[in-house]
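Supplementary Methods, section 5.1.

A reviewer requested that the exact input to the structure prediction be made available. We therefore reproduce it here, unchanged from the version used in the analyses.
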Amino acid sequence: MAMALQKARYGYSRGEDMARRYLVRNIRVEQNHAGHWLNWSQAHDVSLRDLLTGRGALAAHALSHWAGHTSLRRAIC
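The structure derived from this sequence is encoded token-by-token as follows.
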């Protein structure tokens, strides 16, 4: 989302301004989600280290890789 935010130009158009506003708000929501995951892991005796270094399922890794690759590409305008 941060990478998409960098691509949205400020003041260029109403649509891009709306997209920027949405992305900023969504980043804040995701920060809350990260806190929820930490609380959930602690409640289930999963250490922060295990949470941060654990290996996920292959499908989850593939999805994460695709999302990262897609967000790094420039939009075609």
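The helical segments are 2-7, 14-43, 48-53, 58-72. These observations are discussed further in the main text.
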